[in-house]
Amino acid sequence: MILTVRAIEDTAALDALATRIDRLEWRDGGATAGATAKAVKRNLQAVLSGREGEALHGDLMRIVADNAVVKAAAQPHRFSRLLVSRTEGEGHYGAHVDNALMGKGEDRMRTDISFTLFLTPPAEYEGGELVIHAAGMTQWVKPQAGEIVLYPSSSIHEVRPVTSGCRIACVGWIESWIADQGQREMLFDLENLRVSLRTQMSRQSAELLTLDKTIANLMRMWGRR
Ligand SMILES: O=C(O)CCC(=O)C(=O)O
Ligand SMILES: [Fe+2]
User: Fold this and answer.
1) Cα–Cα distance, 98 to 109 (Å, whole number)
2) How many domains are contained in the chain?
3) Fewer CB within 10 A of the terminal residue: the chain, N end or C end?
4) Ligand 1 binding pocket mutation candidate from 27, 85, 87 (most atoms within 8 A of CB)
5) Residues forming the annotated binding site?
6) Does the beta carbon of 130 sit less than 6 angstroms from any atom of ligand 1?
7) Rg (Cα) of the chain, in Å, rounded?
């Protein structure tokens, strides 16, 4: 499942983030890629370790992790550290697969879902599409600024060369309670059904209680760290 979620609604909030990101220091993006991905990665990455960088990291994390649709679609157990990348002047990230395991020690995690929070309006740069090669079909995405694209970490994907302008994006990974993407999709469908039925009937109705029970029991059956 490839999903686009609107996460930042107002342009003032996007402008404020852009201003903060502008003040950060940038390094070669190759430093944070796995061995094979490094060879195809041509972009810059913000240093998020300073005081302002950490504050920004916290705010970006809240934008993603507190989003109700992200929660329902991804069933997150753990989030990776986020990266903020800048791609310009023919910069790109060639076809690659993300590392299956990331982080060290306590933070070691499996990557089930990859996501990109797009921070630049699409009219401000050419190219820079995120291209996801799912089984049997290829999807090109270049959404609005403030939208998050979630896609399976198991897919081959790439960022097309940015031929003019500059593309700023925030990327990260999720370890889900539900490792299997088919099971995750079924739970997401049921969750959406529940939200829609709640607008039509009482929460205490037998139908909604049965749905609550089924969702909870499927989570118990499929939920794994
Ligand atoms: O910038 C993007 O949209 C995706 C970046 C990516 O694939 C990665 O960092 O592994
Ligand atoms: Fe990637």
Assistant:
1) 13
2) 2
3) C
4) 85
5) 96, 98, 157, 167
6) yes
7) 18
